[in-house]
Specification:
Elements (H helix, E strand, L loop, with lengths): L2 H16 L14 H12 L2 H12 L16 H15 L3 H38 L3 H8 L1 H20 L1 H11 L2 H26 L5 H14 L3 H46 L1
Length: 271
């Protein structure tokens, strides 16, 4: 069997089942590009290359926040297509990211379609609940959403990977060098944008100095991630303890101040 056929089937099944959360017992980790990159690398015989592409694509969505029902991007489809096709055509990280970004945007529409169909399933569950049909409710909670996931996601993912590999490979071969260089540069900038979004989400004046301190320590002294963690953990513990002590001292001063005010009031009453 053609290896890309196997990869396309696997990616289609992964895309369909990774987002299925029966009773919310599974985790969103299955949607991360780095998670799906490992089995893709095993199937395609290049685990290191797959992990490199998966981590690069994953950095785009490191600061991804989905407020309420809003889905800003579909990192699962971006990771599956970007890693699979990137490995198949021998693309660098910049080109793989350039492939993944529009796929992630398109995945938002698939998720919207899936939710629209699932809304009908919810109405079916309401009717079963009104009739006291426990089996019907169970089917609407578990199996109907799985079927909707499969129908809306598997065919699209299979077609994109199985037939899209040759199309994208041929397109990249006929593109002029200046366009390819532009795609590589733009793709290389995307992870930085992902980190910028993350900083914007968690940015606090009390935290930013430590972020820049860690950055400069790594750049100047070339320390490893393990060494930086060994340095950072005691600093975090010290800051937490100092903050706790400061809060306790503030509470004590407030209590002493209130007691002093009460004593003054008592003295006034005695007079």
């Amino acid at each position: 069997m053609d290896n890309m056929l196997i990869v396309a089937i696997f990616c289609g099944l992964w895309y369909a089942f990774a987002g299925w959360r029966p009773c919310y017992l599974t985790h969103n980790i299955w949607l991360f590009p780095l998670t799906s990159a490992l089995p893709i690398g095993i199937l395609m015989g290049d685990v290191p290359g797959a992990m490199i592409l998966g981590s690069a694509i994953g950095m785009l969505y490191v600061g991804l926040v989905a407020p309420g029902s809003e889905i800003p991007a579909d990192q699962s489809s971006a990771g599956l297509v970007g890693v699979a096709i990137g490995l198949a055509i021998g693309a660098d990280t910049g080109t793989a990211i350039a492939i993944a970004v529009p796929i992630g945007a398109m995945g938002v529409f698939l998720n919207t379609l899936r939710r629209l169909i699932n809304a009908k399933v919810v109405h079916m569950a309401d009717k079963h609940a009104a009739n006291g049909n426990a089996k019907g409710i169970r089917n609407c909670a578990l199996w109907w959403p799985l079927l909707v996931n499969f129908v809306t996601k598997f065919p699209i993912m299979f077609v994109m990977i199985y037939f899209g590999t040759d199309v994208i490979d041929g397109l990249l071969k006929i593109l002029p060098d200046w366009i390819m260089n532009g795609l590589s540069v733009a793709g290389g900038m995307m992870p930085a944008i992902g980190f910028a979004i993350l900083i914007n989400v968690i940015a606090k004046r009390s935290i930013l100095p430590f972020y820049f301190l860690g950055f400069f320590v790594v750049e100047i002294f070339s320390v490893s991630a393990l060494q930086l963690a060994c340095l950072g953990v005691p600093m975090v513990v010290a800051v937490v303890l100092m903050s706790k002590d400061a809060e306790e001292n503030t509470v004590k001063r407030a209590l002493q101040s209130s007691r002093g005010s009460m004593d003054d009031d008592d003295d006034d009453d005695d007079e």
